[in-house]
From TrEMBL:
Annotated keywords: Signal
All residue ranges annotated as the Thiol:disulfide interchange protein DsbD N-terminal domain in the record: 36-147
Residues making up the signal peptide according to the UniProt record: 1-21
Origin species: Panacibacter microcysteis
Record keyword Signal present: yes
Protein name as catalogued: Thiol:disulfide interchange protein DsbD N-terminal domain-containing protein
Length: 150
C-alpha cells in the first residue's frame, strides 16, 4: 500500500512538472488557389506574450531560425522560402553575439506552390521553430502540416 501511495505521489508530481512545458505558439494553415495550377499556402503563427518567434533569416550562431521542410511530392514545385509578413524586430542579442530577427504576436509565412497537373494532391512537411522571451528560450520544436490542394 505504501508503494502504491508513493507511486501515485511521484506520478502526480511529475505530471504537474511536465504540464509546465507548453507551447506559446498556435499554428494555423490554409491553401488557396490563386491561378490555374498555382496555390498560395499560408502558415500563421500566433505567439503568446511575452514570447517571440525567429525569422527564417536569423543568422548562424544565433537562435534556431524558423525553417520549412517539405515532403517530396513529384506533382509539386516549391521555389524559395516563404515570404514573411508581420512586425519584424531586429535586435543585437548579447547572449548569442549576433543580430537576431524575430516576430512578436503574429507572423504569416506565405509560400507559392505550383501543381504540375490538374489532379488532387497535398503539400505536407514540417516547420521547425524556436521561441524565446526576455529571460529564457524553449527548445526548438517541430510541427507537421498536411494541406490538400484542390
Amino acid at each position: 500500500m505504501k508503494r502504491l501511495l508513493l507511486f501515485i505521489t511521484l506520478f502526480s508530481i511529475s505530471a504537474v512538472g511536465f504540464s509546465q512545458f507548453k507551447d506559446p505558439v498556435k499554428w494555423t494553415f490554409a491553401a488557396k488557389k490563386i491561378a490555374d495550377k498555382v496555390y498560395e499556402v499560408t502558415y500563421t503563427a500566433v505567439v503568446e506574450k511575452p514570447w517571440h518567434i525567429y525569422s527564417q533569416t536569423t543568422p548562424k550562431g544565433g537562435p534556431v531560425p524558423t525553417k520549412f521542410s517539405y515532403k517530396t511530392n513529384p506533382l509539386l514545385t516549391i521555389k524559395g522560402i516563404p515570404k514573411e509578413t508581420g512586425n519584424l524586430q531586429k535586435k543585437h542579442e548579447e547572449v548569442f553575439g549576433v543580430d537576431v530577427q524575430y516576430f512578436d504576436n503574429k507572423v504569416t509565412f506565405t509560400q507559392i506552390v505550383n501543381v504540375k497537373s490538374s489532379v488532387k494532391t497535398n503539400v505536407s512537411g514540417t516547420i521547425e521553430y524556436m521561441v524565446c522571451n526576455d529571460s529564457e528560450c524553449l527548445p526548438p520544436k517541430k510541427v507537421s502540416f498536411d494541406l490538400p490542394l484542390q
